[in-house]
Write a structure and sequence with these properties.
The complex is a heterodimer of chains A (328) and B (264). Chain A is mainly alpha-helical. Chain A has 2 domains: 43 residues, no CATH class; 221 residues, MetI-like fold. Helix content of chain A is 73%, strand content 0%. In chain B, 80% of the residues lie in helices and 0% in strands. Chain B is built from 11 helices and no strands. Chain B is globular and about 70 Å long. The chains are: A mainly alpha (328), B mainly alpha (264). At the A-B interface, helix 4, helix 5, helix 7, helix 8 and helix 9 of A face helix 1, helix 3, helix 4, helix 5 and helix 6 of B.
Chain lengths: 328, 264
């Protein structure tokens, strides 16, 4: 206490204005430690830059770029993790494996088919819902209407996947209901098929589509629609000529988000899919759990998936968005 | 007559909206209903109802431990992600910064990379820096996942902040650090609170990163995954229902707080 008083007194003597703080921050700011370290640092230009940019830049380079870079590096090695007595050298063989074996090629194709189909279904199903909340619900009720849609979002990936099992299992709600009303006499096997996986994926990701679409549609001025209606445009023409083109940004970012999420889903295919629906993430995962020197192959496959997914999303943005990829 | 014509799409859309709500809520409702089934297999119809499964879950040491472990990881990663995300956002809006777009793109990178690939790359990364799998690795992974969301939320709020607030503080003698803690941070408050809740939910929900970065101690999603793969029992439904109700309550509370802050 005495110490900080004298320091403050010295500074005042030199003519520096001493702001009077009354909170805990004051004690920190006026303490000798602060004045000689951070306090001094913010006085100089270099100090300010280091304080502001140091931690963020290190973090971004180390942990946002670093892992991807390490994955690239290891995908080009012959052995990793390096075991004693084994020499690791540069090779492209890990990538070649992918193109040689259809065993690996098929799951990637399946992943893309499922992700594309789920994205398309989600877009068609969620668009009317987003339009309804953005344009038909009155402004006061909008946040309530949105909130109701967001409730399942809090349940999390696994619980939502698990709840789909309740619906589709052999003694699940759908089969029992169909049997009760006499439409079928033995359960339709829906679980562990492409159908249950597709259904589960759509259920899992539809809300990622909702928010981008909603914010894009909400921005369309209602006067445009009124004007078009006055000029004789029917609902369909108004939708095709005004709403659809003006919500393009929302469609592009919603579809990219849903597609990229779908590609990377790991638990849902393992729980809802069957032996015929092994997707690429499960294939990749195998290289990290079995024999330990298969990591480079797994890394190469993960990169193949990342690059093809980003290129697909990029082409889609170009085609639909027409301009630079501003979706993110 | 004209009214009737323009009302038809409206009615259809209203019906569609409610059908969609039903679609969203039905599986979860069924899942919750099954937790009250008085039998040790999962099948409809439910028949007899019981609360026994909840009693069983609440005494299940594994479940309680997984809850604690998940909460611990969520707390650690949320704290780290909020700090780093805010810091990055401050850098992006700072005066005279070159390469703003690149910094923003890098900050958003983990949100664009599909979850599985992110998990694999982090697994490789921690092995190259000799970090063991386990708690710290999971926290690191969840932090990387959450940072982009905090950055975007903080940026949105920072862009609506009147620039003269900080100028005024500087004129009154506050240095950059003091101005940040006394002016900018309180202004960011509601956005950061929303961001933190979002981070907590992201972390508690995460399966794939935990699966690759974790050790033998299961988090909640890992425990549920193992139980679902091990065979169905209404016990899993009771577990999932508890988790769902708690996370939904937290989410609703956050929604309520941020909304109140916005209207004020």
């Amino acid at each position: 206490m005495v110490n900080s008083n004298t320091l403050a007194g010295d500074a005042a003597g030199r003519g520096a204005p001493i702001p009077k703080y009354s909170t805990g921050i004051a004690q920190i700011v006026n303490s000798a430690l602060y004045r000689h370290t951070l306090g001094a640092a913010v006085e100089s230009r270099i100090g300010r830059i280091l304080l502001l940019a140091g931690v963020p830049v290190i973090w971004l380079i180390m942990l946002h770029v670093g892992p991807i870079y390490q994955m690239l590096k290891i995908s080009l090695l012959s052995h990793y993790p390096i075991q004693p007595g084994v020499e690791s050298h540069f090779t492209l063989a890990n990538y070649a494996i992918f193109f040689r074996e259809s065993l690996y090629f098929t799951p990637l194709i399946k992943s893309f088919v499922f992700a594309t189909a789920a994205t398309a279904v989600t877009l068609v199903v969620v668009y009317p819902v987003a339009y309804y909340v953005a344009k038909i619900v009155k402004p006061e009720g909008r946040s309530k209407a949105l909130l109701l849609l967001l409730v399942p979002f809090w349940a999390g990936e696994l619980i939502r996947t698990f709840s789909v099992i309740m619906l589709l299992a052999n003694r699940g709600a759908v089969n029992v209901l169909l049997r009760e009303i006499g439409l079928i006499d033995r359960p339709i096997p829906m679980l562990y098929t492409s159908f249950s996986l597709g259904f589960g994926l759509v259920y899992l990701i539809c809300l990622y589509m909702l928010l981008p679409l909603y914010s894009a549609i909400e921005k369309i001025p209602s006067q445009y629609l009124d004007a078009a209606a006055d000029l004789g445009a029917g609902p369909f023409t108004r939708f095709r000529r005004i709403i659809l083109p003006l919500s393009k940004d929302g469609i592009v970012s919603g579809c990219s988000l849903v597609f990229l999420t779908c590609i990377g889903v790991f638990a849902t295919p393992m729980l809802l899919g069957g032996p015929n629906t092994v997707l690429f993430p499960e294939t990749i995962s195998g290289f990290f759990h079995g024999a330990s020197d298969k990591w480079p192959v797994g890394a190469a496959f993960a990169l193949i998936m990342l690059v093809t997914a980003l290129i697909t999303a990029g082409i889609f943005m170009r085609l639909v968005g027409g301009k630079k990829g501003s979706a993110f | 007559m004209r009214n009737m014509v323009s009302d038809a799409p409206r009615t259809t859309l209203t019906a569609f909206y409610w059908a969609f709500i039903l679609y969203l809520l039905l599986p979860l409702t069924l899942m919750m209903a099954m937790s009250f089934k008085d039998a040790n297999f999962v099948a409809f119809p439910i028949g007899d109802w019981t609360l026994d499964w909840y009693a069983k879950v609440m005494q299940d040491k594994q479940f309680l431990e997984a809850c604690l472990y998940s909460i611990m990881i969520a707390a650690g990663s949320t704290l780290a992600a909020t700090t780093l995300g805010t810091w990055i956002a401050m850098l992006i809006v700072a005066d005279g910064i070159r390469g703003r777009t690149i910094i923003f793109a890098l900050a958003c990178l983990p949100a664009v990379v599909p979850g599985m690939i992110s998990a694999i790359s982090l697994r490789i990364f921690i092995s190259t820096i000799d970090m063991p799998t386990g708690t710290m690795a999971i926290i690191l992974g969840h932090t990387v996942h959450a940072v982009p969301f905090v950055v975007v939320m903080a940026l949105t709020r920072l862009r609506s902040m009147p620039g003269n607030l900080v100028d005024a503080a500087r004129d009154l003698g506050a240095d950059g650090i003091v101005a940040f803690f006394r002016v900018t941070l309180p202004y960011l408050g509601p956005a950061l609170f929303g961001g933190m809740i979002f981070c907590v939910l992201l972390s508690i929900d995460d399966f794939v990163r935990t699966f690759f970065l974790g050790g033998y101690r299961p988090t909640l999603p890992m425990l549920i995954f193992a139980k679902v793969q091990g065979g169905m029992s209404p016990e899993i439904n009771a577990m999932a229902t508890i988790v769902l109700v708690v996370t939904a309550a937290v989410g609703l509370y956050a929604e309520f707080i941020t909304r109140r802050a916005r209207t004020r």
